[in-house]
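Entry, Tuesday afternoon. Goal for today is a structural model of the target with zinc ion bound, before we commit to ordering more compound. Inputs were pasted exactly as handed over by J.K., no edits. I checked the ligand SMILES twice against the vendor sheet because last time a stereocentre got dropped in transcription.
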Amino acid sequence: MGWLIGFALPQRQECANVLHVRRAWRARIAAEVPEQQPGLGEDERRRVIEDRLREQAAVEATVFVRRREEALEREAWRAAARAAAEAQAVVERERAVAAESARQCLPCEDCGQARAAGLCEACGYRRETQALIEQAGLVAAAPSADPRDEGDVAAEVRASVEGEIARSRGVPADGGPGRPAWPPSRSRGETALAYGALQTVQQAASEYHRRALAMLGRTQEAEAEARRVYATEQNRWWFRANPTGTDCGPGGGHGDGSLTEDTTT
Ligand SMILES: [Zn+2]
Ligand SMILES: [Zn+2]
């Protein structure tokens, strides 16, 4: 029945509507049978045509079923892929939730407070405060030419800033009688205290910064002034040594001997 497959799968697909396709091959079979077997009687011809139509219908049904199965397979494959992706996403979400909740459960590295996600808020402020105090020490020591001063300046800055923090709380730097020294031990208002300390240090740090810049500015001005004076002096020497000088500048070919009073006049 190879010739029937040719009918069922027409090369020239004019229309996808199954009723129109069926009408088309019915018409072709009805026309072809008398052409291929012209000697048949009326009844015989009708019987042959009906046989072929039944075979063609069977082929069409087979093709239809095969296509349907293929479509179902594709759909099943897509559904399986979707399900696998969804399952993977669920696993990943669960993993992320577990990791986040494990992280949340970590105690504070600094004070040991439970379920602090590794670092409690108060200790976070304290770390920032300490970092800023150190930075302020470096900033304050920056204008100093002597690197040995750095440690002293940093220690002074630390003492001063910690004093300021204590004053801002209305307690002496050593904590005072019955009061915790800074940094305070854990208490209910600890986070607020730590935050207040950070704010105090931020203000102090910006003041150290401003002062350091002002000092550096003054130093630079003084250096620029010294350079101006030196240049003026050099020019004066040069002019005295070479009143008509055209051949070279200061430090040029004359060496130091030429800087005596002019001998050419
Ligand atoms: Zn059609
Ligand atoms: Zn902590």
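The radius of gyration is 49 Å.
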